[in-house]
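so i finally got all the pieces together for this one. its two components total, 485 residues if u count the protein bits. some of the lines might not be protein, just check the labels. i wanna see the whole assembly predicted at once instead of chain by chain like last time, that was a mess tbh
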Amino acid sequence: MKIGVLALQGAFAEHSAVLQRLGVEAVEIRLPGQLENLDGLILPGGESTSITKLMRHYALTKKLHEMAVNGFPLFGTCAGMIVLAKGISNGKIEPVGVMEIDVKRNAFGRQVDSFETDVAIPVLGRNKFHAVFIRAPLIASVGTDVEILAKLPNGTIIAARQGKLLVTAFHPELTDDPRFHQYFLDIIAGKK
Amino acid sequence: METATFKVKTGLAQMLKGGVIMDVVTPEHAKIAEAAGACAVMALERVPADIRAAGGVARMSDPTVIKRIMKAVTIPVMAKCRIGHFVEAQILEALGIDYIDESEVLTPADETHHVWKHDFKVPFVCGCRNLGEALRRISEGAAMIRTKGEAGTGDVVEAVRHMRTVQDEIRKLVNMSPEELPSEAKELGAPLDLVIEIHRTGKLPVVNFAAGGVATPADAALMMQLGADGVFVGSGIFKSGNPEARAKAVVQAVTHYKDAKILAKVSQNLGEAMVGISVKQIPPEQLLAGRGW
């Protein structure tokens, strides 16, 4: 299996490292021509404004939209989730906009409010997942085709799936637990 | 739920990687930087070139300036405190700034000690010229490092020197046998546990950006190819003829730093670069990089 990691800005090297640990080939993607022969693509955390501007400049926004509509698997974490959302309540972002979710950027406050916590994610099994939230967004609402995968104790939606599109508000690439990446690989393989 | 852990402090720096952090002095500058794709801005009263020209004592910026810039953009906002000035740091934390740069660009407040950064919720970035300095700052709690270069000059030579020095010293540690590490730690003036960690991992435990003298897209890509995780651009953008175009070009150069065709394209028609000062012509006592202990 060969997975692309969008490498315009942000924590793309961390995602590649997790994929390599799982025995999967990881390829850094910066231009549309590099999207051939991939089984899926990860959109990393970073600054969503930087990433979306660089995507538009090199015609990646439209290309990824087309691919996603045709069933290409995408996994967005934090900024990557914002890039995939159809609705963004704050900020001048032009996203790929393929997933039926409304997100709010910087929803928990500024950096001093960034946090880490253990969350229950039933699709990953019984053990809780240690989730790191950095100036994180949240999912304010989801469409009917979207499955909610995780919530904080106060009900805030922090992970969701729609077909082969997967998003988290937190950063599974910043911890040693590869279960979320494995889950994405299982979605691609049709096992989940 | 835990806040202000070292994980979330270093985590934000990881999210800034592959990006450009731009010095801005007004909300308008901040908006230009954000629109160009900067991953963060540094809110200042004056860019380093003007601080250098003005002389006198350079201090933390007026909170009014910082707050206006924080309101103008949604990307992270950083601000500088003087080396060792932990009260300026407390004030910046109270303002809700996202990262504090304990910076040699401002006049040091303490000629022996840096801020004990573990005491703060807000993360810190600190400058270094070599590995020992980087590791001392990390042991004090810095969650991000930048090589110092020589700010406000537009001359990239010191940024190159400092990045190469850090990388060379890391390679040297990796190649040492374990029994050589304690005396090397003593030589570097760095804590042994961090020296052992680098011997094992071959890299710094935090993100390392380049800074100080980056004025062109080519300079930025040079620093990336030398191993920087990202780039700070201070005076280089807003002291140039066409800040919008240059800001965009530098952002693209950092993303496509290995693609010479794209670098050639983005380097075109940027107007005048900032007027530089060769570091060699600056009297040693006026160099900023020597500040910090």
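Chain A has one domain: 2-189.
Chain A has a mean pLDDT of 97.
anyway lmk what u think
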